[in-house]
Design goal:
- By secondary structure, the protein is α/β, with parallel strands linked by helices.
- It folds into 2 domains: about 10-45 and about 305-400, Aspartate Aminotransferase, domain 1; about 65-300, Type I PLP-dependent aspartate aminotransferase-like (Major domain) (Aspartate Aminotransferase, domain 2).
- The chain is about 45% helix and about 15% strand.
- It has 14 helices and 12 strands.
- It has helices at about 10, 15-30, 50-60, 75-90, 105-115, 130-140, 160-175, 200-210, 250-255, 270-280, 290-300, 305-325, 350-365, 390-400, and strands spanning about 35, 100, 120-125, 140-145, 185, 215-220, 245-250, 265, 340, 365, 370, 380-385.
- The strands form 3 sheets. Strands 2-8-7-6-5-3-4 form a 7-stranded mixed beta sheet, sandwiched between helices.
- α5 (about 105-115) runs parallel beside α6 (about 130-140), α5 packs across α10 and α12 (about 305-325) runs parallel beside α14.
- The longest helix is centred in the C-terminal third of the chain and has 22 residues, at about 305-325.
- The protein is globular.
- The model has no long low-confidence stretch (mean pLDDT about 95).
- The structure holds pyridoxal-5'-phosphate.
């Protein structure tokens, strides 16, 4: 390896702060300690039985071992179109307005290559899921970050205030600076804050982007994870959405199929087809048995997301009620699979990495430091609801012991 060689595209990436906590977790486990892992958003709920059966069945057929279609089998695209029609009343052209992606993370990253080039700019909220920040940067674009209000979840009566503040900041981000941003990235229910919005909000986003000739990318990873009767809106429900909007829908959380890497880009036909073109150079699609299993799952296990949602909602309640009892008071998020917690007053001298390092060392609980989600995340820690209620209860006991200055 020549000593002068530089990895230019990745050389300037900041250290992945989640790796620090993960390292401490592994160290603790090696030392025989039982760490309650609420760090990564890696779902623990098994995938639907029908998905596993169909995968096994399809894998025995040699015809399914060949390269498949990058944009997804026609029946898979029909299945997700049917799901959108039943769930959100959105009609999609299966030839032009839908493509399969290898998880939404892959879809999002390559979509940024399609939409952005060197010198372009994108507006991204802060804090955000990390690839929303790094996807545009990898494509060579500049970022305009819009601070999200640090409220974990606006209650219905506060939601208008949240929207007003968001649009004020969005307008400022657009008006200030040159070149004008070409892309807006949003994602609701929001990771990490759990913030939720209504269809009026989505309509305003669509109007904002249409007026300015921008493309809006809505990462809908928590499409089916709305709590207490709330149903997250698809941006494609908004009037005129197909002129400027695309949405990523993933089976990762809704169907608890994280490892299967099955997701879709839906909406504006030109944007979808541009991604299809790029991906035809990059990949040969998902393993066909996975596509077949995903098709049958969407068609025949469409109640599964509701079961998953119930589980996360009960875990949310167990966690927030438990934290409340030990003196850490956090509003309940209306969606996602996360709880976004301000670092308690008594520990405010620590930054989020110091705080989460302290928690894993002293309480055997792994959390994600807020700063890993961008500068807007400092001062917070994120709990992922990926352990069962018994383990969450153990986590609360551990936190009471490891955070004696609480309450
Ligand atoms: C907002 C958001 N988008 C995308 C993903 C990744 O989804 P996928 O497994 O479909 O790549 C996650 C996972 O945590 C997420 O929180």
């Amino acid at each position: 390896m020549p000593s002068s060689f530089e990895f230019r595209r990745i050389g300037n990436l900041p250290p992945y702060v989640f790796a620090i906590i993960n390292g401490l977790k592994i160290e603790a486990r090696r030392a025989g300690r039982d760490v309650i892992d609420l760090g990564f958003g890696n779902p623990d709920i098994p995938s639907p039985d029908i998905a596993v059966q169909k995968l096994a069945e399809a894998a025995t057929k040699p015809a399914n071992h060949r390269y498949s279609l990058s944009r997804g089998l026609p029946k898979l695209r029909e299945a997700i179109a049917g799901y959108y029609e039943r769930t959100w009343g959105v009609q999609l052209d299966t030839e032009l307005e839908i493509t399969n992606t290898i998880g939404s993370k892959e879809g999002f990253s390559h979509l940024m290559w399609v939409l952005l080039d060197r010198g372009d700019a994108a507006i991204v909220p802060s804090p955000s899921y990390p690839i929303h920040i790094y996807g545009p940067l990898f494509a060579g674009a500049d970022l305009r970050q819009v601070p999200m209000r640090s409220l974990a979840n606006p209650a219905p009566e506060e939601r208008t205030g949240f929207a007003e503040e968001f649009f004020d900041r969005l307008t400022t981000a657009y008006d200030i600076g040159w070149p004008k941003p070409r892309v807006l990235v949003i994602s609701f229910p929001h990771n990490p804050t759990g913030a939720i919005v209504d269809l009026d909000f989505m309509q305003r986003v669509v109007d904002f982007c249409r007026e300015r000739g921008m493309i809006v990318v809505h990462d809908f990873a928590y499409a089916d994870m709305g709590f207490d009767g709330y149903q997250p809106p698809s941006i494609l429900q908004a009037e005129g959405a197909k002129e400027c909007a695309v949405e990523l829908y993933s089976m990762t959380k809704s169907f608890s199929m994280a490892g299967w890497r099955s997701a879709f880009l839906l909406g504006n036909a030109e944007v979808v087809q541009a991604l299809v073109k790029l991906k035809s150079y990059l990949d040969y699609g998902m393993f066909q048995p996975v596509q077949i299993a995903a098709t049958v799952t969407i068609n025949e296990a469409s109640d599964f997301p509701a079961e998953v949602r119930e589980i996360y909602q009960s875990r949310r309640d167990a966690l927030i009620d438990g934290l409340d009892r030990i003196g850490w008071h956090i509003p309940k998020p209306g969606g996602s699979m996360f709880v976004w917690a301000p670092i308690p007053e008594a520990y405010a001298e620590m930054d989020s990495v110091e705080f989460c390092s302290h928690v894993v060392r002293e309480a055997d609980v792994a959390l994600s430091p807020g700063s890993g989600f961008g500068p807007g995340g400092e001062g917070f820690a994120r709990f992922a609801l990926i352990e069962n209620e018994k383990r969450i209860a153990q986590g609360i006991r551990n936190l009471k012991r490891g955070l004696p200055k609480l309450g």
